[in-house]
Design a protein that fits this description.
globular; Phosphatase 2c, domain 1; alpha+beta; about 35% helix
Amino acid sequence: MVIATPMQDLLAIEKLREQELEEARIIQGAMLPSQPLHKFNVLISHEFQPVTEVGGDYLDYFALPDNILGLYVGDVSGKGLPAALYAALAVGTLRGIRKTGMRPGAVLSLLNERLHLRGIPGRHSAIQYATFDPATAEMIIASAGMPGPLLLRDRDCRILQITGIPPGLFPSVSYDEFSLQLQPGDSLLFCSDGLTEARSIRDEEFGLEGLQDVCRCHAGEAPLDLLGHVFSAIQEFTMHCRQWDDMTATVFQYSAL
C-alpha cells in the first residue's frame, strides 16, 4: 500500500482547489451574456474582467414583455469565491424578479428585501438596473452605490448622478428612478467601480473624469470598440500594475431605425 506524504497531500489539495476555481469560473461565465444583444435599434455589449479566477461583479441584458429591453450591472462587496457565490445569489434573485416586468425602482426594492432576508453578514450588492422602451425611446434607471452611468451624446460625455443604498444592507428601502429620453446616436456606459478606482503606479485613481475623457474621444463608436478603448486606456494608466477590484462595463447604444 502506498502512503501519501504530507507534501503529496498538500499538492493534491492545491490541485483540487485549482479545479474547483476553474469550474467556478466556467459557471460564472455561463451567467454572463453569451453575445451582444442587437434588437430593434439597440446594440448592447459588455466586458468582464475579474481580478481573480472568479469575481463579485455581474451583469446581464435581455428582452422583457411588451418589447421592453432591460439591463443591469452589479458589484458585490468583497472579492474572490465568496463574492462570486453572493453574486450568483443576486443574479438568481434578479432573474426571478425581472420576469415580472416591474419598473427599475421596484425591482431594486424587491431585490433589497430578498437579500436582506438572507441576512449574510458583511455582504451587499451595489447595482444599476435600467429598462428601455424602443417605442418611446425612454430609458428608466435606478441605481444603488454604482458610479455614473455615463451618457455619450454629440461628442460629449455627461455623468448621470443617481444614488441609492446598495441592496442587502437595510430593510424597506425605496429607490428613485431617473428618466432619460434618448436620441439617435446616444450611448450609455454602465460600469463597476473597478474601472474608476483603478490605480496607477503613483497610487492615483483613473476616476470618472478619466472615463469621461476616453468616452469623449470615442463617442459614437460601436459598443465593443468603445469598451476596447476604455480598457486599453485603463491598462495604459495603470501600466499593468496589479489591481484589486473586478472591472465590468456594459455599453448601450441607441440608433435611428
